[in-house]
What we know:
Blueprint: H1 17-32, H2 45-57, H3 69-81, H4 85-111, H5 114-126, H6 128-133, H7 140-158, H8 165-180, H9 187-207, H10 229-246, H11 261-276, E1 298-305, E2 308-314, H12 318-338, H13 341-359, H14 371-388, H15 396-411, E3 419-420
Antiparallel strand pairs: 1-2, 2-3
Amino acid sequence: MEQTGAMTADSSPERPWPAVLAIGAAAELLFLINLARPSTPVFDETHYVPAARMLMTLAEPANIEHPLIGKLLIALGIELFGDNSFGWRFFSTLAATAVVMGVFAIGWQLLGRVRPAAYAALFVVLNFTVFIQARIAMLDGFMAAFVIGAIAALLWAMRGAPRSVPARLAVGGILLGLAMGTKWVAVPYFGFALMAILLIRLRDARLANRPLGAALGATGQAHFAGIATLPAVLIVAVTGIGVYLLTFLPAFFYRFQPMTLATLLPFQLTIYVQQTQALPPHPYQSAWWTWPLDLRPIWYLYEPVDGAVRGILLIGNPAIMSGGLVAVLACLYGAVRDRSPQLLAVAALWIGSIAIWAIIPKKIGFFYYYYLSSIFLGLALAAAFDRFGKARLKYGMETFALLSFALFAYFYPIISAAPLANDQAFLRWMWLSSWP
C-alpha cells in the first residue's frame, strides 16, 4: 500500500484518542444495560457456560471441539462476578467494545481521519449483531475482538518507525494466536496476515520500479520499515503459533485425562474431526450465501422468562446489512478507478471473510458465522461515504447513521430481551417470510 494520503495516519494532525475512548465508553455502557436479562442461559450458553465451569475446576475436558481461551474468559467472569448471567456475559461486553474501538483504529489508519473512523465504529454499534453478541456468553465475540485487534496492530506496524516494527508485528501475532485459541475460524485470518505482508512488499517494490527481489530486503521499504520480509513473516507466524499452543496450558492440569506434550499435536486432529463432522439438520441452519441478505436470522431466545415473554433475535440492521453490500461494491469500484489501496483493503476484508465459509469444510452453517463479516460492513460504509459522499451525498453519512439508529431503536425490544406484550408480539418485526 502506498504511503500517501490516508495511509499516513501516524502523521495526521488529528488526535484519535479522545474520540475512540469516548466511543468505547459509550458502547460499553450500552452493552451493559440490563446485561443480566434474561437470567437463564441463552442459545449456545448452554454449551459454553458448563464448559467454563468445568475449566474452573480443571476436572476433565469439555466442549473439546473448540480451544480454551473463550471459555477461560467466561470462567473469569464467573470468578469475578459469580455464577450468574451477569458473570457469564461480562467479558463478552468488553470483547464487543474492543471490536468497536478496533474498527475505529482500522478506519483511522486506512482512511486517515477521525470522522470516517468514528462513523465506522458507530455503524458497527448500530448493526445489531455486535450488540447481541456483546450480551451472550459465546465464543464468536472473543474471536472477533482478537482478529480485529490483530488487523489494527498489523496496520500499526506498517507505518511504525523501524525500531518499533518487530514489537508491533509480535502484538499482531499474539492477538492472532489468541483468536485461533478461541475458535478455529480465525485460522484463515492468520494465513491472510502472512500473505498480506508479502503482497504489500511486492507491491511496494513494483511501484518503486525496484527488482522484485528488493521486496525481501530490509532497506528502503515503504512499509514495515527496517525489517526484511522473511523475519517479518516469521515474527507473526512464530508468535501466533506459539501463543496458540500456549492457550492449551490449562488442559495439562486436568485431574482426568490431562493433556501432555505427546498428545498436544494429535489433539489438533481431534478438534478438526469435531469441527468437520456431519451434524443432523437444524431448523436454523442456512447456507453461507444467504447471510449477507439477512434471510435466516436466529431466535437466541423467545419464551416466557423473568416474568415476561422475551426475545433475542440475531439479525442484522437491515440498512447496514443491505447498504453495506452496496458500500463494498463502491469500495471495489473506487479501488479500481482511483487505484486506492485503502478502498481495496476495506473491500478485501469483507470479501475474504465471507469467502472463508464458501471454502472451509463445515457441514452445516448458521447466520452467526457471519459475525465478523457484518463487522467489516461498518468499515465499508464509512469508507464509501467518505470517498463518494462529498457532493450530492454531502450529508449522506449522517443521514444513513440516523436511519440505522432509528432501525436500532425499532428492533431494540427483540434484540435486547425486553418484555413483550404476549407470545405473538414478535409478528410486528417479521418483515420477510423467511424470518422465523
